[in-house]
Design goal:
Chain A has 111 residues and is mainly β. Chain A is 0% helix and 53% strand. In chain A, a hairpin with a 4-residue loop joins strand 7 (62-67) and strand 8. The chains are: A mainly beta (111), B mainly beta (116).
């Protein structure tokens, strides 16, 4: 069936380096994609979104890239900080339907 | 403006007992969604409700699980005769409209259910 998945379940990066978290999706009809950050003991927190008719969107220290040809989504975090340590989920949305979440990638920032 | 409020934050139940999880949506939000998260996994959709109506329960187990969102009061996710496999974090999200800008879709902090 339709699914959203991640290539890497864990990612360790040095503080100050850039992080790239990847996500593969299979539903080409999705309208919207969102990246969420989940810290321990908390609910998912919105980071950045991108519509299906875009291929790149930038926020503060974060960039999301969408490659519809290969159905791939990535989250880039610039100058990774200790506070970025968390689990990151991509979510796939079709309007009028519910969010489909990927399994998550744990990001660990090393001092 | 308080966010999505879930209580209790932690709930321990013995096998066979009932668990009741509450979710108060953000002010102005009339749509509520429940998700379950098993340890080290992503969130899985369970049910979508509007006031007094279940819109989509395609993710709910067929037995022991039920949900409601009454005209007054919080949304309730009820699990009867809990088993160890029900141990998970249960998250509630709310939105003002179903097809709203997804940024308006706000999650609560979850209820962590432990069945012993």
């Amino acid at each position: 069936g339709e699914s959203v998945g991640l290539h890497l379940p864990t990612l360790s990066v040095q503080e100050g380096d850039n992080s790239i978290i990847n996500c593969a999706y299979s539903n080409s009809a999705s309208d919207y994609f969102i990246w969420y950050k989940q810290e321990s003991g908390k609910g998912p927190q919105f980071i950045i979104d991108i519509r299906s008719n875009m291929d790149k969107r930038q926020g503060q220290r974060v960039t999301v890239l969408l490659n519809k040809t290969v159905k791939h989504l990535s989250l880039q975090i610039a100058a990774t900080q200790p506070g970025d340590s968390a689990v990151y989920f991509c979510a796939e949305i079709r309007y009028g339907q519910n969010f489909v979440f990927g399994p998550g990638t744990r990001l660990s920032v090393l001092p | 403006n308080a966010g999505v409020m879930q209580n209790p934050r932690h709930l321990v139940r013995r096998r066979g007992q009932e668990a009741r999880l509450r979710c108060s949506p953000m002010k102005g939000h009339s749509h509520v969604y429940w998700y379950r998260q098993l340890p080290e996994e992503g969130l899985k959709f369970m049910v979508y409700l509007q006031k007094e109506n279940i819109i989509d329960e395609s993710g709910m187990p067929k037995e022991r699980f039920s949900a409601e969102f009454p005209k007054e009061g919080p949304s309730i996710l009820r699990i009867q005769q809990v088993v160890r496999g029900d141990s998970a974090a249960y998250f509630c999200a709310s939105s003002p409209l179903p097809d709203t800008d997804p940024k308006g879709y706000t999650f609560g902090s979850g209820t962590r259910l432990t069945v012993v």
